[in-house]
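task queued by scheduler; priority normal; single chain, no ligands, no partner chains; default sampling; output format set to structure tokens
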Amino acid sequence: MTSDSGELHPFEKLTPEFILNAVEAEGLWCDGRIFPLNSYENRVYQVGVEDASPLIAKFYRPGRWDYAQIKEEHDYTYELESHELPVVTPLRREDGESVRSFEGFYFSLYPRKGGHAPELDQMDNLFILGRLMGRIHAVSATSSFQHRPTIDVRSYGEECVEFVSAHFIPDSLKSAYGSLTRDLLAILRERLDEEYLQSCIRTHGDCHIGNMLWRDDYVHFVDFDDARMAPAIQDIWMLLSGERHLQVQQLSEIVEGYEEFYEFPLRQLKWIEPLRTLRMLHYCAWLARRWEDPAFPRNFPWFNTERYWGEHILELREQLSLLKEPPLALPI
């Protein structure tokens, strides 16, 4: 599939032959087996290796991260691993390098790890995740990213709204979308203030259950591709779901485990709904910005339809109401 300009998308170069050549350029001998894994922002494959376990090859989206940003992500995971935390880290060559390059692509190789997404309706699982998150944040807070960005209102909110409004919103909904997002962004600017920015630490950034591999009450955290500076609550709020009273119960379990290793940032509970709002705006813009990638129309056929935009505006209206409610709080 080509873009509107008639040019092939960069990922179209990732033929089986290209992938095998890239891996074998690292001194490995592949057995020809390639299995694509679920990934849209980047491209990820399980690659068979002669007389060894298969490896996971991750090809980074060209132009998204530069070398220093990818290296900083890798170094962060190595630091966590050095504290015996269960994270899946990229393999290093003998010279210590983990960021590989081949014909215009940065890529990395990982060991294959098995597991499934954790069941968050089980309170014991939330306690375990809370303990691990407390350990991770205790390490994360010891220094800052120098090359990777911050989750803030400008990049996750304003720029996303500007792009979607200019290129995707149907004319019939422009007025409603513009008015609604102006109100949302005004609240976000007020809430995510200087205190918010000063509270930022290194975070996983995209800590949903799809980025956890659970097996026998043990979990590995994977895919730190969205690691950014953000408040600690960014890695916690996505573990919460359901009605308010259920979220309080879930949060109580997480906090109990978290505080075995690190002080839980109760003051940051006020940022849960603002961060959820930013994620909604950013996710929509992410789909829009990637629409020329052939994988996106194929896997997200419901996007960019009149119905989708109507439902998106409805969800944002509901989120505006949630922003006006008192923040989540634990019982005293």
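post-processing summary
- The first helix runs from residue 16 to 24.
- The first strand starts at residue 30 and ends at 37.
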